[in-house]
Amino acid sequence: MTDLKPQKSQSESQVFKQCSKCKHIKLVREFQKRARSKDGLKAHCKSYASIYSDQYYQAHREEILIKGKQHQQKHKEKRAKYIKQYQQKHKIKLATYKKQYQQDHKEEIALYKEQYYQEHKEDLLVQCLCHQCNSKKGNTGVGDQLRLFG
Ligand SMILES: [Zn+2]
User: Fold this and answer.
1) CA of 38 relative to ligand 1 center, distance in Å
2) How many domains is the chain built from?
3) Residue 80 lies in domain
């Protein structure tokens, strides 16, 4: 019988403990440890603690949610303000940089645009195939197409 620690509080009564909240007699391992208390355990059992925290959440749900929202809102405003300030501060710099970039890469941009247009020409040219619209545009495509079938 040496596996039992010879502590005063580990008497037979300490195998079980009555929960101060739900009044059930439970095993001591059903209680959370609490260094400050006399028996080193909390007065109420673990299941009560979880129910209690759940109840607390339910009872204060709105409060908790509002607090979270307020925090987010506050943070959001702060962030937006910061971004605005940054943009304001660097407005001229950014505009100059953009202009400079466009100036420096004028040909590249034009080339890219042209390339993009060539690659997506058919997608971009979604047009009406009726005779009126096509003749207005001087497009003989429909005639050619019809000739294929004729
Ligand atoms: Zn309990």
Assistant:
1) 18
2) 1
3) 1-87
